[in-house]
């Protein structure tokens, strides 16, 4: 059984990297499969200051690099690969990517989530042309321009603060009066002279011929529709969307239990209804989604996988 892994982890974000560390350190033959970049959502986060023990001015990429280094130090393998099919029904599970097939005694799915879109006319054709879901990636394109931030959670408020380093003005657009972010973050935003608020408002449409040129707003209370046009000298502006995430679980739905949104349903043990299959991180139904809760999930899932293997195969 030399070609069989003890543990294959699908996803190389904080949950997957934590699981990889714990699995490999527990002497399991461990593999992480990541289809894009290691680190998941934090790799595009400009600052991570709420992770216990993180260094001052720690960034998503720097924290990811340390996690990867630590997991590899204990023998965890990390490979690129997008899962296209799987078979979890046997004791030895099979995972297939476009280029390879892997067999394993246990699986941890830590596939994460993707940014939720506004789902308004014009959005898809203007992605990367004024519409963005990543301030760290695209902020410098809007040096001295105006930008709008759509959303009212922690990500929206924190990224709005970051965007003030580049934009001359940042307007936070939120569909209600109340915010779902940490009060201290909201207080800082309100104190920032570059930040303004447009409340009880939603985006109806974004427009532009090859580049974002205008955005249509609707007030949810009055029904009034207004259109903001780019400054004539600028020719464009930025629209950064932070309205939540969609779990990356579609391929597994129908096989594993998911809620109405698509998040995996699993208890604190991270166990699913299929023995030997566990879920961890932002793809799992949970009240708080932060780096620290993702790494906790990964650790728990790896320990549970180790116990499962010991009871099933030893």
From TrEMBL:
Any one GO molecular function term: thioredoxin-disulfide reductase (NADPH) activity
Domain FAD/NAD(P)-binding: 5-298
Any matching Pfam family: Pyr_redox_2
Entry keyword rRNA processing: no
Binding note for cofactor: Binds 1 FAD per subunit.
EC number: 1.8.1.9
Enzyme class: oxidoreductase
Cofactor(s) needed for function: FAD
Record field: catalytic activity: [thioredoxin]-dithiol + NADP(+) = [thioredoxin]-disulfide + NADPH + H(+)
Keyword tags: Disulfide bond, FAD, Flavoprotein, NADP, Oxidoreductase, Redox-active center
Source species, domain of life: Bacteria
Family from the record: Belongs to the class-II pyridine nucleotide-disulfide oxidoreductase family.
Subunit structure, interactors included: Homodimer.
Protein name per its UniProtKB record: Thioredoxin reductase
Gene: trxB
